[in-house]
Automatic annotation (TrEMBL):
InterPro entries: Metallo-B-lactamas (IPR001279), RibonucZ/Hydroxyglut_hydro (IPR036866), Sec-metab_biosynth-thioest (IPR050662). Residues 19-231 form the Metallo-beta-lactamase domain. Gene3D superfamilies: Ribonuclease Z/Hydroxyacylglutathione hydrolase-like (3.60.15.10). This is MBL fold metallo-hydrolase. The lineage of its organism: Bacteria, Bacillati, Bacillota, Bacilli, Bacillales. It comes from the Bacteria.
Length: 323
């Protein structure tokens, strides 16, 4: 069968994760999947590598984004002619209009205060915006969700894989099991299940670690031969990767359960113990990881939470604290 070729383009990022990969699918429409970071260096490398595979930037006919994080959407501005295809939940993060950003900050101020976060760290919330200078500001032109075909790529289907981001999707080519997996199946690091506010029209906050675990298990339903990832090497043994990820996560949750068994904790108190130095600089990352483990323990009946003086306190479910 005549298959479209898939080419990899790798560009540097200023983030600790290092390089990010983009992919070019030479299908009915020349499609770029993900778009690096917005730096001159990334743009120059992108042009050079496109040239090596025989294309110019203006040849790109459409861009699919696997999720909305800055290291995947940075160069969108450099392809103004190309429509953007992605999950509808990526759209507000790409547009970043005032009312959305205000709501975002308000959500986290309230949520972090319920988690017992030291107020002096709230200024970090505006710093979160610093990474946005590496992102482009566009809108989703063509929204795709679970099971959709990608326009111009009839062999590829969209698989929703929420967890690392609410907007996360993977692209799957059924006839040979090739997956373009974004940050869902990274080989050497476990992607952080990032906290996000409830989406438009929803009232409950998402529980990203529970979603991530589900999205991992969902991968076992497909016969994936190879996952081309957003960072690092390709993944080939998906069942082994899924098992390893889930086992490591349970180990982390057990550590948290041991803390909570000793005495009830706020989310922030757990966070400080898990990440004694990193929490000050990386509040959003470390709190996302912490709340994820507590959500997992709560969903499985190991801990319960109660509200006390405006804070959530987590206690071990089997232990009667009041005697
Ligand atoms: Zn990401």
């Amino acid at each position: 069968m005549n298959k479209e070729r898939v080419h990899r383009i790798t560009v540097p990022t200023p983030f600790p994760v290092g390089d990010v990969h983009m992919y070019v699918i030479a299908g009915d429409r020349l499609t770029l999947v993900d778009a690096g970071v917005k730096t001159e260096e990334a743009w120059q490398q992108c042009i050079q590598r496109l040239g090596e595979i025989g294309y110019r930037p203006e040849d790109i006919e459409q861009i699919v984004i696997t999720h909305h994080h800055p290291d995947h959407v940075g160069l969108l501005d450099y392809f103004p002619h190309a429509p953007i295809i992605g999950h509808p939940k990526a759209d507000p993060f790409l547009r970043r209009d005032r009312s959305f950003m205000d709501k975002y900050v308000r959500f986290f101020e309230e949520f972090f205060s319920e988690c017992g976060v030291d107020r002096r760290l709230f200024s970090q919330l505006s710093k979160e915006g610093r990474s946005l200078r590496y992102a482009s500001r566009r809108a989703i032109d063509i929204a795709v969700t679970e099971g959709d075909a990608v326009p111009g790529l009839p062999r590829w289907r969209v698989i929703e894989t929420p967890g690392h981001a609410q907007s996360h999707i993977a692209l799957y080519r059924e006839d040979d099991g090739l997956l373009i997996g974004g940050d869902h199946l990274l080989l050497h690091i476990s992607p952080n299940p990032m906290m996000e506010p409830p989406a438009e029209g929803e009232t409950e906050r998402p529980k990203p670690l529970l979603q991530y675990n589900e999205s991992l298990e969902k991968m076992l339903q497909y016969d994936i031969a190879r996952s081309l990832n957003g960072h690092g090497d390709d993944a080939t043994d998906i069942p082994a990767l899924v098992r390893e990820r889930l086992a490591k996560q349970r180990q982390r949750a057990e550590r948290v359960l041991d803390m909570v068994k000793e005495r009830p904790h706020t989310v922030f108190a757990v966070c400080q113990k898990l990440f004694p130095t990193a929490y000050e600089q990386e509040l959003m990352l470390t709190m996302s990881e912490t709340i994820g483990q507590l959500d997992y323990l709560e969903a499985n009946g190991y801990v319960r939470k109660k509200q006390e003086d405006g804070h959530y306190i987590y206690e071990a479910a089997g232990v009667s604290v009041c005697g």
